[in-house]
Write a structure and sequence with these properties.
Blueprint: H1 4-7, E1 15-16, H2 21-30, E2 35-39, E3 47-52, H3 53-56, H4 59-62, H5 72-75, E4 83-84, H6 89-98, E5 103-107, E6 113-118, H7 119-126
Parallel strand pairs: 1-2, 4-5
Antiparallel strand pairs: 2-3, 5-6
């Protein structure tokens, strides 16, 4: 039985809810990410959202007095689902399909971030 912990990425660059748009844009470009996971803090690491360049290019952000001072919390999207670190790859894939996700955070029983897994990784492992 293959578990998500067998193939998940455990050390992606994370963004905190108070991180500013300028820094998030820099990190997205530096690491060539489509989007970043937003966590409540780097100590607790509870996933609370996702943010992408498109999320930060909204008119209300561009029209803010200081657009670069807008925080991740102000422009992130909610995470529709997470999976537990005890989940099988099949269970994870089912959750991803049901929520139309290409990647999903993996958390422990306390909701702390453990890793992230992509649909492509699962497909390569299972098929």
């Amino acid at each position: 039985m293959n578990l998500v912990t067998d193939i998940m990425l455990t050390d992606p660059v994370l963004c905190t809810s108070d991180m500013r748009v300028a820094e998030i844009k820099y990190l997205l470009k530096k690491y060539d990410y489509d989007e970043m996971l937003v966590v409540d803090s780097l100590e607790e690491k509870h996933p609370i959202g996702l943010v992408s360049l498109a999320d930060m290019d909204l008119p209300e952000i561009e029209e803010a007095d200081m657009p670069s001072d807008v925080s991740a919390l102000e422009c992130m999207r909610e995470i529709p689902a997470v999976v537990l670190d005890s989940s099988t790859l099949e269970e994870c894939l089912n959750v991803m399909r049901a929520n139309h996700l290409d990647r999903i955070p993996v958390v422990d029983l306390n909701g702390h971030f453990e890793g992230i897994i992509e649909k492509d990784q699962i497909a390569k492992t299972l098929y």
